[in-house]
Amino acid sequence: MIYFDNSATTKPDSGALDTYRTVAEQFFGNPSSLHKLGDKAKAVVEQSREQIAELIHAKPNEIYFTSGGTEGDNWIIKGTAMAKRMFGKHIITTTIEHPAVRNTMAQLEDLGFDVTYLPVDSRGFINPDDLKAAMRDDTILVSIMAVNNEVGSIQPLDKVADILQDYPTVHFHVDAVQSVGKGVMDLIRNPRIDFLTFSGHKFHALRGTGFIYAKQGRRIEPLMAGGGQEKDWRSGTENTAGIAAMAKALRLALTDEDKKVAREQAIRKEITEYVESFDHTVIFSKLTPDFAPHILTMAITGVRGETIVHAFENEGVYMSTTSACSSRSGQESSTLAAMNVDGSIAESAFRVSLDEDNTMAEAEQFKQAFKNVYAGFMRMRA
Amino acid sequence: MKYSEIMVRYGELSTKGRNRKAFIGRLNGNVAKTLHDFPELTIRPKRDRLHIELNDLPYEPIMDRLSHVFGIQSFSPSIKVEKDMDKVREAALELMDRTAPKGVTFKVQTKRSDKTFELDTNGMNLALGDYMFDKRPDLTAQMKHPDVTLRVEIRREAIFLSTETVKGAGGLPVGTAGKAAMMLSGGIDSPVAAYLALKRGVDIEMVHFFSPPYTSDNALNKAKELTAKLTPYGGRIDFIAVPFAHIQEEIKAKVPEGYLMTVQRRLMLRLTEAIAHQRGDLAIFNGESVGQVASQTLQSMAAINDVTVMPIVRPVATMDKTEIIEQARKIDTYDLSIMPFEDCCTIFAPPSPKTQPRTDRARHYEQRIDVEGLMAEAMAGLQINSIRPGQEFLNQDQDIIAELL
């Protein structure tokens, strides 16, 4: 079995699972309780927070725990909308955001907010000049993903940050869910960025865990009101074990990051060059440095992406159409549509997404599988 | 290139005359205590300087510890070179290459205690200055306020080179002003008062009142952790925990509410005095600040102070709360102090204590309780620990948790 669907979710790390189990058994107290068990659980949460902050070069008081990427995106966007609505109702985002951002924006539009969607070029990149043109006096938030989940384009956040230097009061949010361990830490830790969203299960932690970075001094309204956990910003009893496992998984993910990135790049290159040598193929994710090392989206023209995914499954290779979240609903890829990819080609798209555990041997097996699948489709065509 | 020693310059000693030796001896002892967990070091006190030979240890953590020790004016990491001019030149260049960035101004400053060395002060300055110009044409000489000073000390055993001088904590070596009992609560003020006492050379031991089961281990551990925060300034500090719950219960039962606080404080002071006598302490220090709370009005202080003739020193008496907080932040005790654990002063605090208690009343109400008996009981239950730099009390699970993360 070859698992090439890591952008959908990663396999939990066994060390992180051990941590989960140990913490759940030995530090099970409620971190808000006054007694010793509560203190111990609280210490786990706070030490995890410190570790995570250190790993992403932030301060502990800038890290807030969430249930994952979707909550983080919803919270930062809606939290900004609520906190800053008296200053304006204009928000800027892109046409290629994850549904967690896109659908949140749609909800805000229903509530009377005005959202500008920046277009992307044929390679999947926004143009910073479009942002400059879209900025208004009543703009309160700019939300742009770091790494696109469907094609892997790394957005020019540094240029966006430069533009936003002139708008110091506008919140700048970056969805960094696909960014951990992919060699883009410098980009997402640009000092102008106010908020970052992270999701645990994208870096071998467990589902239902995540965190946001919120720059000291920036305020958002809480979505979760209740017992006042997380300094009143995010109520709800802390997921102590999940948080600890996430801190560990993050540490492991960022250890030897350069080596892992290089390995993923090599595998991606191997597969790309192989697939390119076939006639009826299209590669959307380029081998240039402005694409993430782990995402490779391509198409075999004339065959539906879903069919391709199943054909590969028969060969023991697991992957997705362009985004796992939308693949069951049968929608075509929103990123490819935004890139002006012809609908008939977009519906043939499929995505290989790697992580550090994938090997060159798997790339070779994939090539063999690809050859078989491709030949099969060509026979049907003939 | 490796630093071979850290050279420590004494502070405020020139005025001490015949007591100088005692001061140096004490400072030497304090430095040794502060660096207790680096047994590889050799510490050699001399008349003008203290030399800490690194013996291959990294110098940064040692420098960090030294920066807190009172009685040190400044210190420099130095390289020891044998008395061979070729070697001196080579080492000086290496040191400058590492510590003097391109294009800065510099001068050479030589001190020669070994008068038999071939070059005199000027000779050495010129020799090294010339050499530096040959090898580092980017540097400019400047005698007044240069960016970098290459210090050269010609001593009997070797020549020492340094370019960096770090300001020390100043003050007097802890212990040179005698020993006192410090009343340490868990609040913001008393750690600052303790710091100021240490700064003037007072060797303090902490007296902390605790009231289990009304107060938690956390409250006690917080006070110990605060103490640990203060140990880098002078070394080990003894921590004396005084059980106070029974006394508080008795007072609560027998003394009118308005005088609860006054009588409690009188008992605390009596106990501290008894401890001071027992342990040879010459004075009592506390964190009282005039007018801050009910127990700190001048009337209150008078009514409380009535039980002793021992000198009571209040280092923060006239500081504003904001000034005290600022100082607490500087010595890194603030975040600990504001941790919300109930302490013995808060659990039986009456809603409206008298701000102008009368001494005669306080005496009168105190007679209702068995002062002698209660004190004897508390004195029998003293818990004494010695607290050293780097010890932790609050996050004892830290290592276990770190393993998991």
UniProtKB/TrEMBL annotation, chain A:
InterPro entries: Aminotrans_V_dom (IPR000192), Aminotrans_V_PyrdxlP_BS (IPR020578), Cysteine_dSase (IPR016454), PyrdxlP-dep_Trfase (IPR015424), PyrdxlP-dep_Trfase_major (IPR015421), PyrdxlP-dep_Trfase_small (IPR015422). Gene3D superfamilies: 1.10.260.50, Aspartate Aminotransferase, domain 1 (3.90.1150.10), Type I PLP-dependent aspartate aminotransferase-like (Major domain) (3.40.640.10). Pfam families: Aminotran_5. Keywords: Iron, Iron-sulfur, Metal-binding, Pyridoxal phosphate. It comes from the Bacteria. This is Cysteine desulfurase family protein. The lineage of its organism: Bacteria, Bacillati, Bacillota, Bacilli, Lactobacillales. Belongs to the class-V pyridoxal-phosphate-dependent aminotransferase family. NifS/IscS subfamily. Residues 2-366 form the Aminotransferase class V domain. Its cofactor is pyridoxal 5'-phosphate. The keyword Signal does not apply.
TrEMBL record, chain B:
Pathway: Cofactor biosynthesis; thiamine diphosphate biosynthesis. It is an enzyme of class 2 (transferase). Residues 60-165 form the THUMP domain. SMART domains: THUMP. Keywords: ATP-binding, Cytoplasm, Nucleotide-binding, RNA-binding, Thiamine biosynthesis, Transferase, tRNA-binding. It comes from the Bacteria. It catalyses: [ThiI sulfur-carrier protein]-S-sulfanyl-L-cysteine + a uridine in tRNA + 2 reduced [2Fe-2S]-[ferredoxin] + ATP + H(+) = [ThiI sulfur-carrier protein]-L-cysteine + a 4-thiouridine in tRNA + 2 oxidized [2Fe-2S]-[ferredoxin] + AMP + diphosphate; [ThiS sulfur-carrier protein]-C-terminal Gly-Gly-AMP + S-sulfanyl-L-cysteinyl-[cysteine desulfurase] + AH2 = [ThiS sulfur-carrier protein]-C-terminal-Gly-aminoethanethioate + L-cysteinyl-[cysteine desulfurase] + A + AMP + 2 H(+). GO terms for molecular function: tRNA-uracil-4 sulfurtransferase activity. The keyword NADP does not apply. It is found in: Cytoplasm. ATP binds at residues 183-184, 208-209, 265, 287, 296. Pfam families: ThiI, ThiI_fer, THUMP. SUPFAM superfamilies: Adenine nucleotide alpha hydrolases-like, THUMP domain-like. CDD domains: PPase_ThiI, THUMP_ThiI. Its main location: cytoplasm. Its EC number is 2.8.1.4. Belongs to the ThiI family. Catalyzes the ATP-dependent transfer of a sulfur to tRNA to produce 4-thiouridine in position 8 of tRNAs, which functions as a near-UV photosensor. Also catalyzes the transfer of sulfur to the sulfur carrier protein ThiS, forming ThiS-thiocarboxylate. This is a step in the synthesis of thiazole, in the thiamine biosynthesis pathway. The sulfur is donated as persulfide by IscS. HAMAP family: ThiI. PANTHER family: TRNA SULFURTRANSFERASE. This is Probable tRNA sulfurtransferase. It comes from Lacticaseibacillus pabuli. The gene is thiI.
